Amino acid sequence: MSGKVKLIDENGLRVDGRRPNELRSIKMEVGVLSNADGSAYIEQGKSKILAAVYGPRELHPRHLALPDRAILRCRYHMATFSVEERKPPAPTRREIELSKVIREALEPAVFLEKFPRTAIDIFIEVLQADGGTRCIGTTAAALALADAGIPMRDLVAACAVGKVGGVLILDLNDIEDKEGEADMPVAYMPNLGQISLLQMNGSLTIEEFKQALNMALEGCKQIHKLQKEALKAKYVAIREEVETCLQS
Amino acid sequence: MSSIIASRIRQRQIYQMIASGKRLDGRGLTDYRPIKIEVGVIERAEGSARVLLGKTEVIAGVKIEIGEPFLDRPNEGSFTINAEFVPLASPEFEPGPPDENAIELARVVDRGIRESRAIDLEKLCLIPRKKVYVLFIDIYALNHDGNLIDASAFAALAALMNTRVPVYVVDSDEIKRTSDYAPLPMRNYPIAVTFANIGDKMVVDPWLEEEEVMSARLTVTVDKDDRICSLQKGGGGVLTPQQILEAIEIAKEKTKEVRRLVVGDLG
Amino acid sequence: MIYFENRQIVTPGELLAEGDYSAGSNTYKSGNRIYASRLGLVEQQGKTVHVIALNSVYIPSPGDQVIGRIEDINVNGWVVDINSPYKALLRVVDAINKPFRQQKDDLTIFLDVGDLILAKVLAFDRTMDPLLTIREPGLGKITQGQIVKVSPAKIPRIIGRRASMINLLKRETECKITVGQNGIILISGPTPEHEKLAILAIEKIAQEAHTSGLTDRIAEMIRREKMVKA
Questions:
Q1: What is the predicted ipTM?
Q2: Backbone phi, psi, residue A115, to 5°
Q3: Do A195 and B103 touch (CB under 8 A)?
Q4: What is the DSSP string of B13-32?
Q5: For a surface tag, which of A164, C63, C70, C145 has the fewest beta carbons within 10 Å of its beta carbon?
């Protein structure tokens, strides 16, 4: 923490003008890739993330298959041009950890038992990174799974909370993540009230943590609303078009 | 048995006992297994520690080199943490580079030490922007009987406390090695507590068979001022907000107990 | 307690009902609550709440008619892609009527990689891959026509209640239309233009499957297209 940038001003506004509990502007689109069984694209602030799902499909090599359920595989990967300084294409330790953490965030949501001996593959590509990529990736992957028609217990919505100048903030951008005092990504299944991803690095008192968790869950609920709209969007549009045709 | 997959009967036993507040090895739900810590076990390393957590065994070694600081931290020493799950530790471990579990463990232990600013990195700077001490903390799992994360975190902390830094003096723009050693300057003592969610109960320090039946795990790292410096949920299950808050309250107390063991009384 | 309006679009995890209801297709019950498990239209039929999915995965069921593509040949027979997470197996005994001599006869003579077949699912369960048969009248290698692929979830709408939609299509486009439960449809008509019209209609049905008044609109669309051609 170099402290060279003031991350929150006297009026409580953040570097990009947001209030502490404000999400960045979000655009979600479902069914954007024709080859994948399911896909979604999300722009959140300056972060741009694409998620695709292939499966359930046969698993090769066969010995990795489980007899009573599908296995979920997840690859979180950042494009070389997604960050300020070109990132080499090979998977980094961070990408490997995040691939695992995101997979574990989505596993409890999918009815894996319905597809024994298969694999469901999730691919997340970060095209441009400006903070919150594992949360946005998780949110997009959940949309892609639903788009693929894979049965799920609930959608998974994710959001991160941080702390700047002692103030808790929602949905960190890159500079708030790098220069702030805490970073806590959370993934939530809103209808079931269950948390499937929780990480934190930084420094929070127990009291701050309680507030941060509440803030994160509220953020996840807002993200979930947008997910529902994105999934229904295409169908709602077609319905409306048909109805206006009938009226004319 | 070479396979460590618990039978269905055993799994049911574990669930039933935990539901009634006890565990198969007689522990309470928030009890650690016996913890044994030995330091200075590897003389060639600048610092080392061996931890036994029940039958789980981990060794951590610290090696020090002189190198360049990171561009964004020109006045600080630096450190990296790596973990190896060597094949002799478990029939499930295969030779090769660290897999996602070893990588996750190393990064979780790293976060605890880094975010709590346990090492006083500014005191490890020799010539700003040019020469600093670089620490390599390597963790080797030697026997996996559950909860490698906590065992590794304790070992890393104990090894750091055991570390003696070779003293260099700065002479104009050069550094010269002396024959002295100094203790590694430390400011904080983070302790990790890992919980397993078994049948909706949060159970401290899961051993191997409990790890096989748990639905999710939560590692809470608390520093000496009761601040949470790292959290990591692992495993494919879920946690409710209530379970997380319960775990944090338990962690606050447990970390004090364990810190006394690893660090001694801080006064 | 019901929490929806009939034919409302619901998303996975949405709470549909609470109390003495049964969980129909694409829903699940937890405690006494029923949730949607897929994106689709929710409907209530008596005490059952179900969701008509907008997209789903084809899981073979014995008795299903399917259209598949030969992908591989092995000692047992042919491996068939049936647009499912599971590859199907067509054993020699379920394909060929006359006796087959393993060493002497070449399987590719009967069916080769890339061939399309109309088959029926013989068996499928959790422990084995689906088994197919073509030894029934009407089944076998497909030699002409065009293939359309839709989400398996749309097949019931393409067939329609009491086959009303599929009969309309066959009549108005003059095409032979064979529907595979696995989302693959075979169209064979007097001319390529007839086939194209049928494909257009099927794609429109798939797109608008969740709207009402679809049968009339499809009839209208086909009529319009035929007038343009005339």
A1: 0.92
A2: -135, 65
A3: no
A4: HHHHHHHTTB-TTS-BTTPP
A5: C63
Q: Start-end ranges of CATH 2.40.50.140 in chain C?
A: 65-141
For A226, which residue in chain C has the nearest alpha carbon? C11
Neighbours, chain A (3 or more CB pairs < 8 A): B, C
- CB pairs < 8 Å spanning A and C: 93
CATH second-level architecture of C65-141?
Answer: Beta Barrel (2.40)
Contact between residue C173 and residue C197 where contact means Cβ atoms under 8 Å apart: yes
Residue C24 CA to its chain's centroid (Å): 20
B233 in contact with A, Cβ within 8 Å: yes
* C-alpha distance across the termini of chain B, in Å: 47
For chain A, domain boundaries? 26-247
Shortest Cα distance, chain A CAs vs residue B234, angstroms: 7
CATH code for residues A26-247: 3.30.230.70
pTM: 0.93
Q: How far is CA C92 from CA A14, A123, C84, C87, C113, in A?
A: 70, 39, 21, 16, 15
Per-residue pLDDT of chain A (248 residues; tens, 9 = 90+): 445 568 888 888 999 999 999 999 999 999 999 999 999 999 999 999 999 999 999 987 888 899 899 999 999 999 999 998 899 999 999 999 999 999 999 999 999 999 999 999 999 999 999 999 999 999 999 999 999 999 999 999 999 999 999 999 999 999 999 999 999 999 999 999 999 999 999 999 999 999 999 999 999 999 999 999 999 998 999 888 888 877 76
Q: What is the DSSP letter of B68?
A: P
Of C11, C14, C85, Cβ closest to residue A58: C85
Q: Give span(s): CATH 2.40.50.100, chain C.
A: 8-53
C and B touching (3 or more beta-carbon pairs closer than 8 Å): no
What are φ and ψ of residue A86, in 5° steps?
-45, 130
Does residue C92 sit at the A interface (CB-CB below 8 Å)?
no
Fold classification of C146-229 is: Ribosomal Protein S8; Chain: A, domain 1 (3.30.1370)
CB contacts of B216 in chain A (<8 Å) are 104
CATH architecture classification, C8-53:
Beta Barrel (2.40)
CA atoms within 13 A on the CB side of C169: 32
Assign domain B8-263 to a CATH class: alpha beta
